Amino acid sequence: MTRKKIAILGGGNIGISIAEGLIKNDFIAPGYITVTRRKKRLIEHLTDKGIVVTDNNVEAVRNADIVITAVQPKQLSDLLIEIKNHLDPEHHILASVVTGVSIQEIKDVIGADVPIFRVMPNTAIAIQESMTCIATNNGNEPDTQIIEDIFNRLGKTVIVEEDLMASSTVLGACGIAYSLRFIRAASQGGIEIGFDSDVAQLIAAQTVKGAASLLLEHSNHPEEEIDKVTTPRGCTIAGLNEMEHQGFSSALIKGVITSFKRISNITE
């Protein structure tokens, strides 16, 4: 259990998920986490779990070692201006889970040479199953390890170059929606072949979870696991080939690239 104190500035869905996930996994004592929100009443329920809540960002920063900004992109600049004089390069680590705001843009506002990390989780952070990408250009190894330790309690992490953060958003964050659309389509197919909708969804969702777990546990290439369930003239290979004839893999790849082009245009 860490002795570092964490301030989460922005008690929205992601901020709350981070706080609740860390105490659920016994990473930190509840009293060592402070969550802020302008409308404090919306996060008062966190006090039932021992988490400190306040509407005072400056107070939260002063009492913290690690500061996580979790506000909307349009709110970040004002927040950074509010706290910048209270950030100590010798004491604080700053992590931003705000989409589309670069490390340099953050540094331009705060000025001080505080270690800055960009962190891109996905919505599965709500159940501690996020795929989180982390980038920094001035965080040292111990600082990086601290940020990894935090978000490894909320899923899995990978360190990437900052110029891959848009790609990380597409593959990791948009990827949740891609995966859910596959499950939905598989469920509809299940209904076509005789299952009630709730049973079809359960089978499809658990099957996808199992498939992902095979790759994560064994570190095999997907085709290696596919080969284990395809037999000559069998139903699996017949179905896979029909999907490929209909452009399954091509459509998914094109979707990923289209999302990347869109996010690149937005962030330019």
Structural write-up:
With 268 residues, the protein is an alpha/beta fold. The chain has two domains: 155 residues, NAD(P)-binding Rossmann-like Domain (Rossmann fold, 3-Layer(aba) Sandwich); 100 residues, ProC C-terminal domain-like fold. Helices cover 51% and strands 13% of the residues. It has an eight-stranded mixed β-sheet, sandwiched between helices. α1 links the parallel β1 and β2.
Summarize the structure.
By secondary structure, the chain is an alpha/beta fold. The chain has helices at 13-24, 57-62, 73-83, 103-110, 141-152, 165-192, 197-218, 222-227, 235-245, 248-267; strands spanning 6-9, 33-36, 52-54, 66-69, 93-96, 116-120, 130-136, 155-159.
Topology:
Elements: E1 6-9, H1 13-24, E2 33-36, E3 52-54, H2 57-62, E4 66-69, H3 73-83, E5 93-96, H4 103-110, E6 116-120, E7 130-136, H5 141-152, E8 155-159, H6 165-192, H7 197-218, H8 222-227, H9 235-245, H10 248-267
Parallel strand pairs: 1-2, 1-4, 2-3, 4-5, 5-6, 7-8
Antiparallel strand pairs: 6-7
Helix pairs in contact: 6-7, 6-10
Name of the CATH first level of the largest domain: Alpha Beta
- Count of discrete domains: 2
Coarse structural class: alpha/beta
Named CATH topology of the largest domain? Rossmann fold
The CATH homologous superfamily of the largest domain is termed NAD(P)-binding Rossmann-like Domain
Rg over CA atoms, rounded to whole Å, is 21 Å
Mean pLDDT: 95
Strand percentage, roughly? Answer: 5-15%
Tell me the number of helical segments per DSSP (H or I, 4 or more residues long). Answer: 10
SSE order: EHEEHEHEHEEHEHHHHH
Helicity range: 40-55%
Straight-line N-to-C gap: 41 Å
Shape: elongated
Count of β-strands: 8
Spatial strand arrangement across the major sheet: 3-2-1-4-5-6-7-8
Task: Please give the CATH architecture of the largest domain.
Answer: 3-Layer(aba) Sandwich
Low-confidence stretches: none
Q: Largest sheet, if any?
A: 8 strands, mixed
